[in-house]
Amino acid sequence: MSEHVPAPVAGSPVEDAKASRFGRRRGMQSRKTVTFGDASDVTTSKGWMLVSLGGLFLLWWWFTRGPEPILDEKTFPSPFATWDAFVDWWRDGYRRASAWEHASASLSRVLKGMLIGTIIGIPVGFAMGLSRVLRGIFDPIVELFRPVPPLALLPMFIMWFGIGEESKVNLLVWASVWVMIIASRAGVLGVSGSKVHAAYSLGANKWQILRYVILPNALPEVFTGLRVALGVSWGTLVAAELVGAEKGLGASIYIASRFFRMDIVLMNIVIIGVIGALMDLVMRLLESRLIPWRGKS
Amino acid sequence: MKDLSVQNVSMVYELPKGGSVQALHDVSFDLEAGRLLTLLGPSGCGKTTLLNIVAGFLAPSGGSVELGGTPITGPGQERGMVFQQGALFEWQNVAQNVAFGPRMNRRKRSETKALVDGLLNTVGLTGFGDKAIYELSGGMQQRVALARCLANEPEVILMDEPLGALDALTREKMQGLILKLWKETGKTIILVTHSVEEALFLGDKLFVMAPRPGRIEKAYELPFAEVGLTTDPRKLKASAEFIEKREELLSMIWGMEEQIMGHEGGMS
């Protein structure tokens, strides 16, 4: 844009552009005297992430296989035992199912639950954001049911939906739907009056306001909802696979605990943690791709 | 071209704790097509309320507003709107923002493309069509807002403190742009501002509004906007005539502010 010289109208935007570029010098040494509390100055340090992870492993090793271990490997397996369990699991699977079958069984339950929770949650949240009446009708329902932990519902869900996939997926729907409703409602209510007014003055009808203003404006909030819901669903996985599951990471934890195989339990816990973190990473990458305007207005 | 007619417009806001505020009391005026009216006054004088009534975002408690003989009952694209800031769509780039109106009206893409290019040129943003809104400075964002509003060929352009968030230098440049657009398009413009200088420089007609109840205190016909493009604006603003008017308006508004302060002091 620098080689472009606009027509000499009153005020040159090229100067504006220069000014804004100057204001955003990246990579320059910070000369700020106030950095504590300045969010713009806080970036995640990759180096410290490695230090943190390394320290965690060191502590784990120290307490289980250090010079004077204070944890019993039977109840708290060492990193080596966990690694061995992982290698076995990766090569031979567990209980007549491969590692991939366990992981994909859990993943597909979480994704199905999320999908249904999102398909229900977004329209309900939008309806609540758009209509006083619907907000009044749904608000007590959401506020009453949202704090109920999914595990508490498990007995009833099993009675209603059986011990097969349906009750498991429905439990995960429960885990995600309230988050999606609340996030979508917040996204709709967060639209500024001037944007809506501007769109009406530009000839938009109600449907167009919804499609071209309210929906895109709510996207950042909806996306945050998706990330939170994914975390909550993944965290509910073990509860969902508590009863009647042969395959799955959560199911493996229960089965292994009955045989007192803490190495397999711990290994599955680490796998759940790692997959959860990877999914959030993917979501964050998607977010910066799909919603580049987030936090920049 | 359509004239605007505001007849006996009142606006009463009911307060949640009971009682009411008279934001506008019996405001009447006629504005011929092609005028540039500036509304000036202390906070609470109802100037933004008046603008929102003309825009159709608010229905007055009493009275009527007509554009070209047609009563205004809601927002419409013959009355374009430019806000102070935050009304652009961040999820669209500059060109998509400008094309929003034509798109809502299902105009042909090829037509719209040419229209958008022309408008970006008019506001001095040629070549910026692909830029994201958040990449632009405040002044450039307001240029986009002006272009977006012009894309629908409105009869009247309503501006609610359009330059209020800009720094002093950018603000002066943008005043020049508004005058240029007004001259070139011949559109009716109503502009709300807090700045006495801006109201004098841009308005070829100016209403000083007063609060409690909100009303038009004094109306001026001004010569400055007419010559604002051909004369050096700094010289114009330093001319004896301009300074005399500026001081007259300033003391009038200061008087109102002091009355408000005294009034509030008396209540507490």
Mean pLDDT of chain A, to the nearest integer, reads 88
Average pLDDT rating of chain B: 92
Morphology of chain B: globular
- Which structural class fits the helix and strand makeup of chain B? alpha/beta
Query: Percent range for helical residues of chain A?
Result: over 70%
The main sheet of chain A comes to: none
Rg calc of chain A: 25 Å
Low-pLDDT stretches of chain B: none
Q: What does this molecule look like?
A:
The complex is a heterodimer of chains A (297) and B (268). Chain A is mainly alpha-helical. Chain A contains 11 helices and no strands. Chain A has a domain of 188 residues: MetI-like (MetI-like fold), CATH 1.10.3720. In chain A, helix 4 runs antiparallel to helix 9 and helix 8 packs across helix 9. Chain A is globular. The N terminus of chain A is likely disordered. In chain B, helix 4 crosses helix 5 and helix 7 crosses helix 10. Chain B has a domain of 155 residues: Rossmann fold. The mean pLDDT of chain B is 92. Classes of the chains: A mainly alpha (297), B alpha/beta (268).
What's the SSE blueprint?
The complex is a heterodimer of chains A (297) and B (268).
Chain A: H1 13-23, H2 46-65, H3 79-92, H4 99-130, H5 132-145, H6 150-161, H7 165-189, H8 193-201, H9 206-240, H10 249-258, H11 262-290
Chain B: E1 4-14, E2 20-31, E3 36-40, H1 47-55, E4 62-67, E5 70-71, E6 79-82, H2 94-98, H3 100-104, H4 109-122, H5 138-150, E7 156-160, H6 168-185, E8 188-193, H7 196-202, E9 205-210, E10 215-221, H8 224-227, H9 233-238, H10 240-267
Parallel strand pairs in B: 3-8, 3-9, 6-7, 7-8
Antiparallel strand pairs in B: 1-2, 1-4, 4-5, 9-10
Helix pairs in contact in B: 4-5, 7-10
